[in-house]
Amino acid sequence: MDLKLKGKSVIVMAASKGLGKATALEFAKEGAHVLISSRSEDELAKTKNEIQQATGNENVTYVVCNIKKQQDIKQMVQKAVDWNGTVDVLVNNAGGPPAGTFDAFNDDDWQHAFELNLLSYVRAIREVLPYMKQQNSGRIVNFASSSIKQSLDNLLLSNTFRPGIVGLSKSLAQELGVDNILINTVGPGRIQTDRIMELDQIKAGELGIPIEEYQFKNAKSIPMQRVGQPEEFAKTIVFLGSGANTYLTGQSLVVDGGLVKAL
């Protein structure tokens, strides 16, 4: 299948590691011009070099961006436009909010999660839309979590703000279809990342068991009997952001090996 991504201008946010990095790598494999962002220039430079070496695609660059800052997002999009003339694909991504239950969070915690996991997406979309509308084409893919389908224990902030991304995407799909701009939301289930390791350590500590035991039990709860790999999630993102996706918009998906039971 021709994904029609060669030479396309792609932004992947929060892409110095984890699922963002895996996604940027898969776009680069398809010949896209990929701009990655995160807060750490050292990590970005390292990731850029790793992607170039792995793919042979020299068209990878980066910009330091704190996605809680509106000006940083503006500068990120402007760099992509200065580099490639437009933005064809935006992949919204942000680190997950802290774990915890209701009593654990104050107003600052709520504000941080809102700015990180919802408002940053709004701002990035706002910046790329003029270019996508002008060319009558664009793809936007929003990272979320499996909490878009089923609430997760001890992850109140994620359960609150991730579904907001779904509402945003669904509404924008209605508005932007006429401009041939497709927008979808994808949530990972148990994918092997630092974030999952962090949450596993917290949960294993609460249960008083070794993390290896907790992870083994979790893997067995997945119909496919294993956790997913970052590239398996990334390939779904790349399809949704590609020219091969011509009619799928306004949808929320989970890549989870069948773990989530909600319809």
Automatic annotation (TrEMBL):
InterPro entries: NAD(P)-bd_dom_sf, SDR, SDR_fam
Keywords: Oxidoreductase
One Pfam family, short name: adh_short_C2
MF-aspect GO terms: oxidoreductase activity
GO biological process entries: bile acid metabolic process
Membrane-spanning parts: none
Oxidoreductase recorded as keyword: yes
Family: Belongs to the short-chain dehydrogenases/reductases (SDR) family.
PANTHER family, per database record: 3-OXOACYL-(ACYL-CARRIER-PROTEIN) REDUCTASE, NADPH-DEPENDENT REDUCTASE BACG
Protein name: SDR family oxidoreductase
